[in-house]
Design brief:
The chain is an alpha/beta fold. The chain is 24% helix and 33% strand. The strands form 2 sheets. It has a 4-stranded mixed sheet with strand order 1-4-3-2, covered by helices on one side. A 4-stranded mixed sheet has the order 5-8-7-6. Strand 7 and strand 8 form a beta hairpin. It is globular, with a radius of gyration of 15 Å.
Amino acid sequence: MAPVARFRSVVLDCSDPLALAGFYAALVGGTPRAEEDDWVVLEVPDGPRLAFNREPGHEPPAWPRDGGNAQQVHLDLDAGATWEEVDVAHARVVALGARPLDLAEREEKDFQVYADPAGHPFCLCRIGHP
């Protein structure tokens, strides 16, 4: 059966689309392009398109997920095959403005949870490469 539609974007609501697009551009590559004052697109090299929508009353998702304003959506990012590579990625994302949410997941599940500058959760994952 043919698909109904073609994947276009992952869209993140935030209060400052250009700033959040800049954060993700530094994280995964690409150049943010403001299509309107309240809409910025990031074409990720070899990845999905990310878009950022201005939401004046944006409230960051809650972490840990304890009801209320739960995480809603998150991104999993491959940070490398070793914990040494993940540690380098950790230092870089924190320097870019990310906030660690749950580093304990690392040993149990091979990922660490962070919040981007607008509060959206994302994970740095340790993934082996063939």
